[in-house]
Amino acid sequence: MNQNYWRIFANKLFLLFFSSAYLFYNPVTGNAVKLNSQNVDMTLASNELVIINFYADWCRFSGILTPIFEEAAAKVSELYPESGKVVLGKVDCDTETSIASRFQITKYPTIKVLINGQPAKREYRGKRSVEAFVSFVQKQLEDPIQEVSSLFAAADVKSRVVIGYFENKNSQEYQVFRKVATNLKDDCLFYAGVGETFRAMHPPNETIIEFRPDRASPKSEHHTFRGNSADYDSLNIWATDNCLPLVREITFENAEEITEEGLPFLLFFYHPDDLESIKLFKEIVGTYLIQEKQRVNFLTADGVKFAHPLQHLGKRHTDLPVVVIDSFKHMYQFPAKSDYKNHEHLKTFIDDLYSGKLHREYHLGPQEISAIEVIHGHNQPAEQTMPPESTFKKLAPSKNRYTLLKEEL
After folding, report:
1. Per-residue DSSP letters for 141-189?
2. What is the pLDDT of residue 266?
């Protein structure tokens, strides 16, 4: 018998032992809903929150997670017995191959989070324990709307804000607003003014919904929703367009999910005391470079908090603002003779990344040889150097993110 046979046999033996031991000490009644091609769409459409465990029977880590996930599902069912609220489901990827392909499952177990039928930007990457799963569900189902008693209470200069004025919370408009807020609570703050306090600010029985950008965004991004407030699709599209801007701020908290999108970063490192330069950069990108969003992620970054990447480029906070492309392999600095205020220079910078010119010139020097170099006989390529290594690739998801930590076993 070959080594592969014994490896498979050992894995199955370990799985059998661990699962039996866990169930002996933790007897549970499985409450995770088995999803298949017949019921998955209805389950997603009829529940506010669905968490799916994509597993494979032959996977040792899937087997370890199964009893934990089943017990969590049982506890969640006790906490939220009403229909339409939350479901913990499971998909056998060996038998439901079409569902696994639909959700691009490549590792087991993978845990996907879906809100109002749509995949959340973040997969579940927390601790794989009953307590952690239950806590995550409770956090997800918290009311995403803060009720305010005055306009001033809803002012938050650091965040993007969506505020709605409603006659009462029982209206269809408010329920649609809450559903949209649930989808986008990680990207915008949602406020609501209800009843008499706000009645004088708009015509009777009329709902008003407004978007207010953060303080680093141009005033032109301040919008009022002009559609039907009771139409979920139109309000959700409008709010998504505003809450997920073309130029985003990268932080240590969201770097992993943005990195996972796979597009190179065009980073505008700024000094936190210089908000005007950010506004100008956003105006330039929004006016002239919208078509480039398929090739790069436009991002702003606090150059003081992200001092480490700048150090790799030989830059300090006194050099800000600094424009950089991070390809996840190397970092390329905006040419010294270029001006970020010129949209054509930014466009050329992106073009040079995709043509290979940025990498080629780091190795061979500029393609053009100056007259002075020719006169002195220095017509050889510049000394070969390697561009600085990408810093942001280190913030990408761990290749082992689907496995259990040792202390969780």
Report:
1. TS--EEE-SSTGGG--TTS-EEEEEES-TTSHHHHHHHHHHHHHTTTSE
2. 97
Name residues whose C-beta falls within 8 Å of residue 299's C-beta, 6 or more positions apart in sequence.
Answer: 247, 248, 249, 250, 258, 265, 266, 267, 268
Q: Is the peptide bond before 109 cis (omega within 30 degrees of 0)?
A: yes
Q: What is the pLDDT of residues 58-94, one digit of tens each?
A: 999 999 999 999 999 999 999 999 999 999 999 999 9
Residue 121: pLDDT band with limits 50, 70, 90: confident
- Residue 195, SS3 per DSSP: coil
Reference 116, options 86, 136, 151, 96; nearest CA is 86
CA distance 166 to 207: 5
Length reported for the chain? 409
Exposure of 364 in the CB half-sphere (CA atoms within 13 A): 12
What is the reported pLDDT for 324? 95
Cβ atoms < 10 Å from Cβ of 97:
13
| 78 vs 235: CA distance, rounded Å | 33
**225-249 pLDDT, tens digit each:** 999 999 999 999 999 988 888 899 9
| 210 DSSP assignment | E
Residue 113 neighbours by CB distance under 10 Å = 18
Give every CB contact of residue 278 below 8 A, 6+ residues apart in sequence. 216, 217, 268, 270, 300
pTM of the full structure: 0.64
The CA distance from 108 to 179, in Å, is 31
Residue 369 has pLDDT above 80, yes or no: no
Q: Is 268 helix (H, G, I), strand (E, B) or coil?
A: strand
